[in-house]
Protein backbone atom coordinates (compact mmCIF):
# COMPACT_ATOMS: atom_id res chain seq x y z
CA UNK A 1 0.00 0.00 0.00
CA UNK A 2 1.37 3.40 -1.01
CA UNK A 3 2.98 5.29 1.87
CA UNK A 4 3.41 2.39 4.29
CA UNK A 5 6.57 0.76 5.57
CA UNK A 6 7.17 -2.54 3.78
CA UNK A 7 10.75 -3.68 4.51
CA UNK A 8 13.51 -3.26 7.07
CA UNK A 9 17.08 -4.37 6.77
CA UNK A 10 20.18 -4.40 8.89
CA UNK A 11 23.53 -3.42 7.42
CA UNK A 12 26.36 -4.62 9.63
CA UNK A 13 30.09 -5.24 9.69
CA UNK A 14 29.53 -8.78 11.06
CA UNK A 15 26.65 -10.51 9.29
CA UNK A 16 27.19 -13.86 10.99
CA UNK A 17 27.19 -12.34 14.48
CA UNK A 18 24.03 -10.38 13.66
CA UNK A 19 22.30 -13.50 12.35
CA UNK A 20 23.26 -15.41 15.50
CA UNK A 21 21.99 -12.59 17.76
CA UNK A 22 18.60 -12.27 16.04
CA UNK A 23 18.18 -16.04 15.75
CA UNK A 24 18.76 -16.40 19.50
CA UNK A 25 16.77 -13.36 20.66
CA UNK A 26 13.87 -13.30 18.17
CA UNK A 27 13.83 -16.81 16.76
CA UNK A 28 14.60 -15.66 13.23
CA UNK A 29 15.85 -18.07 10.60
CA UNK A 30 17.81 -16.90 7.57
CA UNK A 31 18.01 -17.84 3.93
CA UNK A 32 20.44 -16.42 1.38
CA UNK A 33 19.13 -14.06 -1.28
CA UNK A 34 21.32 -13.41 -4.30
CA UNK A 35 22.49 -9.83 -4.85
CA UNK A 36 25.24 -8.77 -7.25
CA UNK A 37 27.50 -7.00 -4.77
CA UNK A 38 27.69 -9.29 -1.75
CA UNK A 39 25.80 -11.39 0.74
CA UNK A 40 22.18 -10.79 1.69
CA UNK A 41 20.00 -12.87 3.98
CA UNK A 42 16.24 -12.76 4.34
CA UNK A 43 15.07 -13.18 7.92
CA UNK A 44 11.90 -15.11 8.67
CA UNK A 45 9.70 -15.92 11.62
CA UNK A 46 8.25 -19.21 10.50
CA UNK A 47 7.01 -18.48 6.97
CA UNK A 48 6.64 -14.73 7.55
CA UNK A 49 9.28 -12.33 6.26
CA UNK A 50 10.86 -10.30 9.06
CA UNK A 51 13.54 -8.29 7.22
CA UNK A 52 16.99 -8.58 5.75
CA UNK A 53 20.63 -8.60 6.84
CA UNK A 54 23.59 -7.56 4.70
CA UNK A 55 27.12 -6.24 5.02
CA UNK A 56 27.86 -2.55 5.34
CA UNK A 57 29.26 -2.41 1.80
CA UNK A 58 25.91 -3.59 0.40
CA UNK A 59 23.71 -1.51 2.68
CA UNK A 60 21.49 1.38 1.71
CA UNK A 61 23.93 4.05 2.91
CA UNK A 62 27.31 3.70 1.23
CA UNK A 63 28.97 6.18 3.58
CA UNK A 64 27.97 4.33 6.76
CA UNK A 65 30.77 3.06 8.98
CA UNK A 66 28.65 1.58 11.77
CA UNK A 67 25.81 -0.96 11.69
CA UNK A 68 22.30 0.45 11.24
CA UNK A 69 18.72 -0.55 10.52
CA UNK A 70 17.13 0.92 7.38
CA UNK A 71 13.46 1.07 6.29
CA UNK A 72 11.68 1.07 2.95
CA UNK A 73 8.27 2.62 2.21
CA UNK A 74 5.97 1.37 -0.54
CA UNK A 75 5.22 3.85 -3.31
CA UNK A 76 2.95 3.34 -6.32
CA UNK A 77 5.63 4.52 -8.79
CA UNK A 78 9.19 4.86 -7.47
CA UNK A 79 10.39 6.91 -10.45
CA UNK A 80 7.57 9.43 -10.08
CA UNK A 81 8.10 9.56 -6.31
CA UNK A 82 11.83 10.27 -6.75
CA UNK A 83 11.10 13.01 -9.31
CA UNK A 84 8.63 14.60 -6.88
CA UNK A 85 11.14 14.37 -4.02
CA UNK A 86 13.79 16.12 -6.11
CA UNK A 87 11.34 18.87 -7.03
CA UNK A 88 10.63 19.40 -3.33
CA UNK A 89 14.29 19.67 -2.26
CA UNK A 90 15.16 16.02 -1.66
CA UNK A 91 18.21 14.30 -3.07
CA UNK A 92 19.14 10.88 -4.40
CA UNK A 93 21.40 8.53 -2.44
CA UNK A 94 20.92 5.60 -4.85
CA UNK A 95 19.03 5.91 -8.11
CA UNK A 96 16.09 3.61 -8.79
CA UNK A 97 16.98 0.06 -9.81
CA UNK A 98 15.02 -3.10 -10.40
CA UNK A 99 15.66 -5.87 -7.87
CA UNK A 100 14.50 -9.23 -9.26
CA UNK A 101 11.58 -10.74 -7.34
CA UNK A 102 11.46 -7.67 -5.06
CA UNK A 103 10.56 -4.56 -7.05
CA UNK A 104 11.97 -1.20 -8.06
CA UNK A 105 13.81 0.59 -5.27
CA UNK A 106 15.50 3.93 -4.72
CA UNK A 107 17.08 5.63 -1.72
CA UNK A 108 16.48 9.32 -1.19
CA UNK A 109 17.15 11.97 1.42
CA UNK A 110 14.38 14.30 2.42
CA UNK A 111 15.14 18.07 2.46
CA UNK A 112 16.33 17.76 6.09
CA UNK A 113 18.83 15.05 5.11
CA UNK A 114 17.06 11.99 6.52
CA UNK A 115 17.55 8.94 4.28
CA UNK A 116 14.72 6.56 3.40
CA UNK A 117 14.16 3.77 0.91
CA UNK A 118 11.22 3.82 -1.45
CA UNK A 119 10.02 0.66 -3.17
CA UNK A 120 7.44 -0.26 -5.77
CA UNK A 121 7.08 -3.93 -4.83
CA UNK A 122 6.42 -6.61 -7.42
CA UNK A 123 2.98 -8.16 -7.23
Automatic annotation (TrEMBL):
Domain of life: Bacteria
Domain VOC: start-end pairs: 4-121
PROSITE patterns for this protein: VOC
Pfam families cross-referenced by the UniProt entry: Glyoxalase (PF00903)
The protein's name: VOC domain-containing protein
Organism: Chelatococcus caeni
Amino acid sequence: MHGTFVWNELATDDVEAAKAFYAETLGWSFEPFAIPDGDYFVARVGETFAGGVTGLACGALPEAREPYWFSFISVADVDAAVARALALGGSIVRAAVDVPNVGRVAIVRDPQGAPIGWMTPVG
